[in-house]
Amino acid sequence: MKTLRSKILLLLFPFNLFGIPQYLYAFQTEYAREVVNTLASDDFYGRGYVKNGDKKAAEFIKKEFERFGLLSFEDNYFQSFNISINTFPKQIQLSINGKKLTAGKDFLVEPGSPSVQGTFEVVELTADDILSNDKFRSKLIEIPDKFTVLLPYEIKEITELKKTESDRFNSILGFLKYGFSRNPSAGFIEFTESKLTWSGSTRVEGKASFIVSSSALSKPIQKIKVDVQNKFFENHETQNVIGYVEGERTDSVITLMAHYDHLGMMGEAIFTGANDNASGIAMLLSLAKHFSTNKPKYTIVFIAFGAEELGLIGSKYFVENPLYDLSTTKFFLNFDIAGTGDDGIQVVNGSVYRTEFDRLVQTNQEANLLPAVRIRGAACNSDHCMFDQKQIPGFYIYTRGGIQAYHDVFDRPETLPLTEFRDYYQLMIKFISEL
Ligand SMILES: [Zn+2]
Q1: What is the residue extent of each domain of the chain?
Q2: Nearby residues of 17 by Cβ (< 8 Å), 6 or more positions away
């Protein structure tokens, strides 16, 4: 339906107000869709460290850079570095009272978990048991070689506590979950009413631990059966992918960045990361494509970072081992989550670089593009943070509104709408050209 409608509009209005043929924009959205569908397909294994998903994604980006004729600082576009990473390449099983749960939908294994196999008895705990010294002590006696299970509790119960009490709760939770050497349990399960949100880990913790959706709870829990096998890589080689387009002026550089890595696989569950951040790479590549045939005023460096999800490791490596003089950076833009936009975009560092923010707002208003351009202060929540720490000016921009899937198995290409991608892309071209 949508495609048909836009084709009809295209025939009626082949040129928009700015004299840029509309088919160019349509083409760009098509290209972005292609990039998202490719990078977030199951064949890229969630761009993590099972089945070399990271390498496969990096190779794809490298081929696109090559195709657009981007220049490279070294013999190729790769900047390699090593990471430690805990992975789960084999099927993960968790059954409660004989009912087999689905990995990714019903439960997650904590990313730092070691292997654990077997059938176990459980010790159930409530938030109240943890908060009371006496109750917790009596439970502690029961836990050796059993799974400790924390039953659903209201987060509110904990956040409204006195600081000393909530500190106690969190440190006991950490003890149960990550199993410091004194924890004699076989493992830990926490039931939650919140959405399941996964991450990655660069180390292996003491105990295996799960977070389970409270909808999968069947009380009382009599037996649990688990099978988790982790595989830890001490020194996995991964990479940033870096290219540039020379501008009319080469004394200053504009740096565009997006991370391509995501969480990979947890057993059979694939975290495809369509919004986070195949969409940001789609923006990066769309802009690389544009500026490779439209010579920019300043040289533009394009960086696809690896290992962002593990704690901004790729960007940290880059600012410590830069391929150009970072002090010549006129401005940077970091694209991390670009797939919706129903509520416009949010601009991290907007209040830090107010002149550029005001210009962005004005450009957006004049061209009547995005529904909103919202200001935000500094936040160390993506790769730009490493540039912030070096006092290099720039924005981190993300889209707002629309689907809420995030760090879960539901962040998939078939449900990512790219609602405002075309307008966002158009705004970025204008903004970069005006810098
Ligand atoms: Zn991200």
Answers
A1: 2-85+234-434, 93-228
A2: none
User: How close is the Cα of 426 to the center of ligand 1, in Å?
Assistant: 22
Q: What is the CATH T-level fold of the domain 93-228, as seen in this structure?
A: Glucose Oxidase; domain 1 (3.50.30)
3-state helix, strand, coil in the chain (%, to 5): 35, 25, 35
In the structure, what pLDDT confidence band is assigned to residue 158 with cuts at 50, 70 and 90? confident
How high is the mean pLDDT of the chain? 92
Among 55, 79, 47, CA closest to 280: 47
Question: Using one digit for the tens of pLDDT, what is the confidence trace for 204-256?
Answer: 999 999 999 999 988 889 999 999 999 999 999 999 999 999 999 999 999 99
Burial class (CB in 10 A: 0-12, 13-18, 19+), 202: middle
Residue 219 alpha carbon to ligand 1 centre in Å = 37
State the CB neighbour count (10 A cutoff) for residue 17. Answer: 8
The CATH superfamily of 2-85+234-434 is: Zn peptidases (3.40.630.10)
β-strands 231-245, 298-305 pairing: antiparallel
Per-residue confidence (pLDDT) for residue 27, from 0 to 100? 54
Q: For residue 278, report the distance from its CA to the centre of ligand 1, in Å.
A: 9
Q: Name the nearest CA neighbour of 33 among 416, 303, 399, 397.
A: 416
Ligand 1 center–CA 339 separation, angstroms: 12
Same topology between domain 2-85+234-434 and domain 93-228:
no
